[in-house]
Amino acid sequence: MKTKLKYICLSAAAGLTLSLSSCSDFMDLTPEDQYDEATVWSDADLAKTVVNDVYSYVCDIAQEVNPDAWTDDAFFTHVYGCRDINEATVSPSNLGAYDRDDCPFKWSKQYKGIYRANLVLANIDNVPEKTGVDLNILKGETYFLRAYIYTELLRGFGGVPIVDKVYSIEEASALNLPRANVADVMDFILKDIEQATSLLPEQQTGVNLGRATKGAAKALKARLLLHVASPLFADRTVNKLECNQYTGDRQALYQQALDAAKDVINDSNYSLIDCNAGTIKEIAEKFHNIIITNNEETIWSKQYVNKDLNADNWVRNRVALLHGPNGYHNWAGTAPTHDLVMAFETEEGKIPNTLLKPGESTTENPYMNREPRFYATIGYDGAEWGRPRASDGAVFDATPLGNLQFGYYELSEGGNNVNAIYSVDDDNNPIKQEKFNGMVGVDTRMGQIENWNGTYTGYLEKKLIDGSVAANEHNFQTCPMPYIRLAEMYLIAAEACIELNKLDEAVIYIDAIRGRIGRPDTKATLAVRGQTFNQSDLREFLRHERRVELTYEHSRYYDIRRWMIAPEIGNKKLTGVSIVGRLKPGKTASLPYVHDEEVYNYTWTVLNLNYIEKRKWDNKMYFAPIKLEETLRNPAIIQNPYYE
Known about the structure:
By secondary structure, this protein is an alpha+beta fold. The protein has a domain at about 330-470 and about 575-610. It is built from 21 helices and 16 strands. The strands form six sheets. Strands 8-16-15-10-12-11 form a six-stranded mixed beta sheet, with no helix packed on it. A hairpin with a 5-residue loop joins strand 11 (about 415-425) and strand 12 (about 430-440). Helix 2 (about 45-55) runs parallel beside helix 5. It is globular.
């Protein structure tokens, strides 16, 4: 038997052949050659390509399906199994979107990554030294990556089998490993993080930018500790499986999470960027740049390469194509819900309390006087996208930077008969509608360009997108995508302080996040919202702050579960918005359309999208199901509760 076929890993889906890239670019993982193991482990450059391969098993946020689509924050336009999650119909034999490769805790994919990491750790100490390759750093990166992958598995499933070595065929019986409990998985991850921290450099630069650092390892520690300390793992009413329960001192975990977060906050390699400057729009632009550039808030992010038309699509950052407007020939992917839009506070710090329920309407622009993060995150009707449209789109919108069109607009010249739908019932039967001569926005599902890719919700996300990329280059966005930002460490520190009843200290961390974008301080904002400075109200305040700060950053899905607020969140109706623009008396308009509140009377109505996805919560959804073939292959693996 050849050496390259000697080893197997926990998942039946894991591959056995080492396909390695001979290219020098860190993130260019296109398989070009295959080597047997003896060759790989006799050359440091080849060993490094195996470590590069391990990086590929970490799911970044620039994916078509973002896990926010499984929460109240977003809806996935093309469904792709997301409905199974949101309607709680998933099962071991029907995983829905949990079985997609862009699910950050897909069992088979993640254990394949663990297998690769174990392969590196089993062999790297015997690789000959070579100028230009630091084997100790590669070893540290591998410990970090294994820790990161296990953290994703823990957050998705709870306790999971710990595989810390490469098993040979002769040891196949040992592969019937049971699920370890959450505490043991956490301890295993913490040991890997400790090893990684001792080996990794403070920074990675040049061609190594995007590889793991000490700061990334410390930040992962804070994230992990906060997660396990959370209410879900202490619960015994819903969380009935022993391996998913934490029985240790949660207050001690919160203190450790606080200490770990502060360790990163006090690290001189990182600092919050002060976005305060001039107008709200300018502050929003600065905040947006924090997300799409490498900067002093970036703890760890994925870097992308941009070569030529023959390059692998998945090496490039395609999020502009995946999530952008159909009027730019994009796919609208994971689109914000109206519920998320109304979660962003007003300029004075209030949370909007109107225009929340299906059928509710207003003639006052709901997007005016909102906080900077709203404008950095949400693409809404009339908002600038960032570049002119191609010739087919310019017929309908000729503005220099492209104004998004999600509504029905009356025209005095040109146009067609339009049936404007204001509101519908649960089965999509119109409740209020009217007909007039006009046009339907080019970025809608009734528009003139690829309408099948239009958003249902009337919104698009712009947080992850560089809107200035030329329209014929939407496949080539190269801006980095963060895995971990410094802002998260401040929010972890604040949450831990609240749970430890260190309220004054918690406010220091929250105010740092809010102050750098010109938001009023926490205590003043609590008063504006009619709340008081106590643990309960501050906890609610912090949770809201996490929602709007970390939107689209793989946070909300886990947060609503670990906080055990999912029954409230998961039972919300899916909502979007309908926009109707009627000409004011004496005003005229023709193509191309221009958003103008001096010319149009606009009406915004909350749109019921229940007919697309009838969202409901089931307590089984606190943890994902383990795929049936995994439990059949390994009878020692106990299925998560309520899926038996």
